Amino acid sequence: MLVVSVDVSDAGVAIHARTRSGVPAGCTGCGRLSEWCHSRYIRRLADVTLAGRPVRIDLSVRRLYCENATCPKVTFAEQTAGLTVRYQRRTPQLQRLVEDVGVVLAGRGGARMLRILNIRLSRCTVLSQLMRVPLPPPETPRVLGVDDFALYGDTYGTLLVDATTRLPLTLWEGRDAEQLSRWLREHPGVEIACRDGSLTYRQGITRGAPGAVQVSDRFHLWQGLSRRVQDITSAHRGCLPAALPPAGEDDPAPAKESAMNTAADTRAGRHARRLFEAVQALTCTGRSHSSVARELGLDRRTVGKYARANTWQEVMRRPSRKPSTLAPYLDYLQQRWDEGQHSAKILHEELQAKGYLGHYQRVKMAVAPLRRGLPLDEPRERPPSPREAARWITTHPHRRNLHINDRLPRLLDHCPELRQTHDLVRQFAFMIDNRDATPLPGWLNDLTDSGLAPLVGLAGALHEDRHAVAQGITTPYNSGVNEGRITDIKLQKRLMAGRAGVPLLRHRVVLIAHLRRRYANRLTVSPR
User: Fold this and answer.
1) By C-alpha distance, which of 107, 139, 106, 135 is closest to 122?
2) Quick one: which of 482, 486, 487, 489 has its CA closest to 507?
3) Fewest CB atoms less than 10 Å from the CB: which of 44, 87, 105, 345?
């Protein structure tokens, strides 16, 4: 029971309260009730704002003697339920607000938000209150999701997620098999573990939970296959112009030879060929990449790229594929030129009136062929890049547009290696779509016999992990929930400008997921 009086002013709201005498209070040491008053003192508590005004509670409480002779406390201060907490100068309601704001916005952002609410706290105080919030007690999940994420630079971390409740469990720095196996031994009971194709996570799960069924995630399987397909299209870059429609039916130019000759005549092509020949000549003698890099004055990674390439076309930089901003106005330029307007300056002004934002020099260069009696340089369709060609191959046939359906068959008919790659990709897609891993052993043998180095290497990696790959194809379990949580981790890192350590990042990632779940449950509860 409290005796309360309220003073309201422009500076805020001051509430004066006093606990009643003669009411027994429980000892904070042993819990025994006592009415033996020692003295009184004033506790000043901060509360949530009222109509935008700060609220201060001046609470007069008693200090009582503990009547239990065996209790280590001689005196204790009485506590008011729902209003005071030991050693706390904020009410529980304000404390929960500070903690929730700290979880959502961290230190600096949380302090700014609280300042808008007329609650003055520093960013360090918000962070300290956040770190004092205990993490939810860990529960051993039945289905565990394991995945890595980029922490900073070349340093990665490991994230564990309960795939059933979709809540993060913990995260730590590094991708260490021993640390994962230790966590699994401390939390026995995991039945299914979803992961990527990492050997580190495979070994950690095998040591820590040998009875768990390991599932290789379908997304990572498809991603790994797509990367190998792009490596193959890069190695067969010279075949890509075959995807374009032929210039004439009577005299179709050999696309592969013409593309190679055109690239070889350019400055970039000659430079790439010289570097390729120099690097290959030195590395074939058994010298290390670092030694070759020092001799040629190149970066070691550049030497490695040229050493791994089979042809110089694989490492040649391609020109920009961005269309010219003048392309939509070429017909108008031709029309005005035929009408007798030959001033590039006036033509540029007319194009600006039509919305053209480019420079005058581009218009001047565009009409230069017309002054020599030649036609305008019409925008020519470029051959697909290796990435585009790989995307054509990996896209489901029903999702390909007319442009791809027109050009992909030409490309596959021209290049047997890409045709073989396309057939193998479609076989794997059929297994995933039908959740049938029966053809997997034969498919792996086909990869090995394909003679394509990227697919042969992939076959070796998948063969060692074939049981988890089969589970990933046939079971509904995957690491999709991990990918969503990793996106959340990236968001929290950006909010903290990358300055957060692993303990703070772990606190925020785990607590913010539970906070969202808590408020979502409140919103879904219908009022009575």
Assistant:
1) 107
2) 489
3) 87
DSSP structure string for 34-68: E--EEEEEEEEEEEEEETTEEEEEEEEEEEEE---
CB atoms under 10 Å from CB of 331, counted, come to 11
For helices 453-464 and 218-235, give the axis angle rounded to 10 degrees.
160
Using alpha carbons, select from 182, 159, 189, 54 the residue that is nearest to residue 114: 54
> How far from each other are the two terminal CA atoms of the chain, in whole angstroms?
30
pLDDT at position 524 = 62
440-449 vs 453-464: helix crossing angle, rounded to 10? 150
Contact 76, 84 (CB under 8 A): no
Whether the CB-CB separation of 32 and 74 falls below 8 Å is answered with no
Q: Residue 111 has which token pair?
A: 């302090």
Provide the 3-class DSSP secondary structure of residue 485: helix
Tens digit of each residue's pLDDT (9 = 90 or more) over 244-288: 887 554 444 444 444 455 455 667 778 888 888 889 888 888 889
Could you tell me if 161 and 167 are in contact, meaning their C-beta atoms sit under 8 angstroms apart?
Answer: yes
pLDDT, tens digit, 9 for 90 and up, residues 313-337: 777 665 555 667 888 888 899 899 9
3-class SS string, 83-138: CCCCCCCECHHHHHHHHHHHHHHHHHHHHHHHHHCCCCCCHHHHHHHHHHCCCCCC
Q: How many CB atoms lie within 10 A of CB 9?
A: 8
Phi, psi of 434 (to 5 degrees): -100, 0
Alpha carbon distance 271, 290 (integer Å): 21
pLDDT digits (tens, 9 = 90+) for 472-494: 999 999 988 999 899 989 888 88
pLDDT tens per residue across span 146-168: 999 988 878 899 999 999 999 99
